[in-house]
Amino acid sequence: MNVDLRILRFDPEKDTEPHWQTYQIEVRPMDKVLDLLIRVKGEQDGSLSFRRSCGHGICGSDAMLINNRNRLACKTRVDQIGKKISVAPLPGLPVVRDLVVDMSGFFTKYRSVKPYLINDEPEPERERLQTQKDRARFDDTTKCILCAACTTACPSFWARPEYVGPAAIVQAHRFIFDSRDEGANERLEILSDENGVWRCRTIFNCVDACPRGINITGAILDVSKAIVARRG
Ligand code: SF4
Ligand code: F3S
Ligand code: FES
């Protein structure tokens, strides 16, 4: 089967605006969109730029807008999305070149929620223990691979780029509800400001976009409830 692969191209050294370019390419059984991009770059147009690393849905580097939906190129089967495929960079972030976006703002927000274990107690001789029940409390949010598909699918983020966004809230959730962590109050304070959780309008685009199937709105609700309980 042949498909038309339409890619939104932008070269900052030559172009003033992005433009679409279409490539005809033969599809092999089980091809993912990433396979097509790699073959276009290797066989038709070496100037095409995109990010990818693991090829297996783990590193989170190849999220892009595929047929108008944020997805990982390495997890999107070509035979499941039809013969006409359009690929564009993630919406809402500055484009560096072709499908490569500037993720620095996204990672600044990620760092702003202190996504690491905070515990000033003396280190135990071995590991810090935790019950299975306590571990289960944040199991879902440990699955995040920081691909940015959720935040860049969120209309609240498009309207207000200062919004910390669902990905950062998911990452905060992972530590706020960890029984070994003592930094919940700091994070809840950060997330209760004008660009924190209250910017979420429960639009659910983030949930549809997440390649890890994380219950993002559930995590946002957990954090919102914890903020309210803390004000108590
Ligand atoms: Fe990607 Fe899902 Fe993490 Fe958002 S929550 S960054 S969509 S893995
Ligand atoms: Fe945005 Fe998701 Fe909330 S799409 S508005 S973060 S439910
Ligand atoms: Fe790593 Fe797709 S290349 S997630």
Note the topology.
Blueprint: E1 2-9, E2 19-26, H1 33-44, E3 63-66, E4 69-72, E5 84-88, E6 95-97, E7 100-101, H2 104-112, H3 132-136, H4 155-159, H5 165-176, H6 184-191, H7 205-209, H8 216-231
Parallel strand pairs: 1-5
Antiparallel strand pairs: 1-2, 3-4, 3-5, 6-7
Helix pairs in contact: 2-5, 5-6, 5-8, 6-8
The structure holds iron/sulfur cluster, FE3-S4 cluster and FE2/S2 (inorganic) cluster.
Residues 154, 156, 166, 200-206, 216-217 line the site of FE3-S4 cluster.
- Write down the overall geometry: elongated
Please state the structural category.
alpha+beta
Q: CATH class of the largest domain, anyone?
A: Mainly Alpha
Q: What is the string of helix and strand elements?
A: EEHEEEEEHHHHHHH
Low-confidence regions: none
Roughly how many Å apart are the termini?
61 Å
Helix percent band: 25-40%
Which small molecules are bound? iron/sulfur cluster, FE3-S4 cluster, FE2/S2 (inorganic) cluster
Specify Rg, calculated over alpha carbons: 20 Å
Structure description:
It is a single chain. With 232 residues, this protein is of the alpha+beta class. The chain has two domains: 100 residues, Beta-grasp domain (Ubiquitin-like (UB roll), Roll); 128 residues, Alpha-helical ferredoxin (Fumarate Reductase Iron-sulfur Protein, Chain B, domain 2), CATH 1.10.1060.10. It has eight helices and seven strands. The chain has a five-stranded mixed β-sheet with strand order 2-1-5-3-4, with helices on one face. A two-stranded antiparallel ribbon has the order 6-7. The longest helix has 16 residues. The protein is elongated, with a radius of gyration of 20 Å. The chain starts with a strand and ends with a helix. The model has no long low-confidence stretch (mean pLDDT 97).
